[in-house]
Request: fold
Amino acid sequence: MAGRSGASDQRGRLVADPFDYRIAKDGAVIVSRGGRPVTTVGGRDAGKLAAALQRADDLTTQHLLARITGNYKRGNERR
Reply:
């Protein structure tokens, strides 16, 4: 079970089907999964997320992107 230190990926979904992101010209962060856009983060939140993604390793990047999408917290969601 995940604590405050980070999200858990016990089923390995973040490795098997990872998130991807790109930073648009206007600074927005577009998060996608499986080639489909999941969410777009803009404004100050996009700047904070982009800075965190620059510092993060691969696993931390996946956890940040999963957290920002909002529907990957409980582990019982279906694709």
Strands lie at 19-23, 29-33, 36-41. The first helix runs from residue 13 to 16.
